[in-house]
Request: fold
Amino acid sequence: MNVILLSGGSGKRLWPLSNDIRSKQFIKIFRGEDGEYESMVQRMYRHLIAVDPDADVTIATSRSQVSSINNQIGDMARSASGTSGKLGIGISVEPCRRDTFPAIALAAAYLAHERGVDASEAVLVCPIDPYVERDYFEALKTLSDHVAETDVHLSLMGIEPTYPSEKYGYVIPDGHGRFAGVTAFKEKPDKETAQACIDRGALWNAGVFGFRLGYMLDKAEEILGTSDYRTLYDTYDALTKISFDYAVGEKEPSIDVLRFAGEWKDLGTWNTLTEAMDEPGIGQALMNETCSNVHVLNELDVPVLVMGCRDMVIAASPEGILVSDKEQSSYVKPYVDRIGGQVMFAEKSWGEFRVIDVGENSLTIRVTLNPGHEMNYHSHEHRREIWTVTDGHGAVCVDGEVRRVGAGAVIELPAGVRHTVHAFDTLRIMEVQLGADIRTYDKIKSDIAKDWWKE
Amino acid sequence: MNVILLSGGSGKRLWPLSNDIRSKQFIKIFRGEDGEYESMVQRMYRHLIAVDPDADVTIATSRSQVSSINNQIGDMARSASGTSGKLGIGISVEPCRRDTFPAIALAAAYLAHERGVDASEAVLVCPIDPYVERDYFEALKTLSDHVAETDVHLSLMGIEPTYPSEKYGYVIPDGHGRFAGVTAFKEKPDKETAQACIDRGALWNAGVFGFRLGYMLDKAEEILGTSDYRTLYDTYDALTKISFDYAVGEKEPSIDVLRFAGEWKDLGTWNTLTEAMDEPGIGQALMNETCSNVHVLNELDVPVLVMGCRDMVIAASPEGILVSDKEQSSYVKPYVDRIGGQVMFAEKSWGEFRVIDVGENSLTIRVTLNPGHEMNYHSHEHRREIWTVTDGHGAVCVDGEVRRVGAGAVIELPAGVRHTVHAFDTLRIMEVQLGADIRTYDKIKSDIAKDWWKE
Reply:
């Protein structure tokens, strides 16, 4: 099974747990099989490879999400590839935002040219963020097999509606069987029209569809003028902004839909997200017995105590604290836009950082490197850094000089000095950045020998 | 006017803004005259010296509050003493908690022996934490003058009740004049009894009383066996635990009460405290228009966004976050006792510190020294410290070596090395403490020459 997972969104609607870097699909709120919390991305990937250990998964996303993806499923993907012989996950990076058709065309070209998928093979495209159970993934497998076994150009997945939602698109099938032809689409109808659609047997459009890879490459040629991966990538910002539904879906006569009746939820707001939580509190949370229907998501290192509250969500991160009635929490975005501000935490391919103090001419950051990982070799033009290793063991390279470090080591890095660090075990560093104008983009990458830390 | 302010309480009822070190009277929530926030302690002191610039004020308190008092009113007291010729404030430190009579006796002895107050002078004792306006302080002056002009042994202040409270003590006067004799006391009656008391003209007992200093020294001799300050101080933990009301107040036949009808509030819970706030939000707080009767007190560096809430208090500090219905917030204590944990912020005589990260074998602290102030010269047996100066200018002394430091300076302090720092202007230091077992009490004080930093 070849699967393209669409991972988008900047996700301010789940502030303060989502920010410009961390979209909602990276928030860890579900209990995984090992009892640890996992994100929607991790959950989706885990289920996919459980249903099909040979699944070839490509994530179509923006550059800003690559580090988080590597951090969250990099190791899982490497260990899956170890057993199946596959290459783990692929990442098709969109150079900028261009709507869904260019993104899907780029990912299709990536599959063809970078991962060697044959034009005759079936490919599925799925959003990365529905909240679903194992039966959904089995339906994906059915859909993929169906595409491979028939000549239908485009096969959708339709969800049996549970209420006349005004938020979803509807697909009207021409029959009541497991697979049926599609007679019409209806995008976000009002409630009455939605009910009328449902009465005619309409299904929610899950945004999932399958096709043979060659079909999508042909569409790319036809609509964008090329299906060459490099060309698409290099000219991406000049491509027409056009949605897949408009460019392809609604025009395709050879189309059918697979009916799916299992659990399927869009967790786009605090209200819906908290409904899917396995427990009322994540992190240090204490609620007294007078609370009802309260959910706490606390990523800070201090406790949250809630008393006498009902129908509320409380979310805390290094970026801020939300205290909201659940209903009201859907309207968070305009207020968050007003808050603005600095990104205070992020996952990186090598681990994570958290801003713990913002001074007038300083920024103090807690850096955690995962075992076996390392940063890029880099320098800063305008700032000094003082690193104090607080836990773990590693090696640092400072302008070519390699030395072993452990808890208590102090490394002074004047502006202009190239540096990196490799972690032998989990390595924690308190990093004080000093300078009048500290910016993320003040970073000059350099080359360094592979395995430099083995010296 | 000689005034003893009783400053007690460990104040978990206002968690997380109060903790084992910071009692409620040190929380800065009122707008002062200069527009800056001030605490009850600062507000009380400011009003006192406004009504009587020559007021000799002594604060009777425990050792744990001395730093906070110096931090909050040290400079104000020094500047007041500069204009009036007085010595600023006195602090009578209770070596341990022994109830109100030993505390008052100790403070009275302190006034006699350490501040040279004559036995014939009038002395007032007042709690440090009622929320009152200027008329209250004028009433204090009236009470002090009354004591000085009459032969009454003990003069109380009684507050005109506004409702039949079950939380206060009542004083039953024998008349309706401004001053009246006292016929009886009634401690925390039920509502009906309270109403009956009020119908008889009863007043709330404000905990304020005046006497000639000699009277209290005689009582100390009589009840505790001595009125010598040093003896009381050195044998304090062996003194009988006994309340002033029980030991003296209720037995004294020569007693009267001053009627006071102005504003007087006990701000002991979030509910009453927020009622006295000048604005709904302190710190970074954003409430949308669907909120009503919500108060936010945010001491963190990140914003709090509140939506769709009513009748709530939200308080955030480095120690935790409280989200509570106002009514429920009175019951916070048992839950806070369960949380326990480390003191995460404190005011010191030289400035303040805030724990910003707790690692397995490390503690990172943001230290702010006020201009012209310095720490004690000290060393630690079991931990190293790495200081990075992030802002300001100062001088450090490390094992006798003095050097000037500014932003960017790094000072490594191995275990056993004596050190201190003096701030020329506001000096901020990021201090990483490293060790397997980091404890506040691992601190050995040393002597150092006065003005060592002038070298």
Observations:
- Residues 83-87 of chain B have pLDDT under 50 and may be disordered.
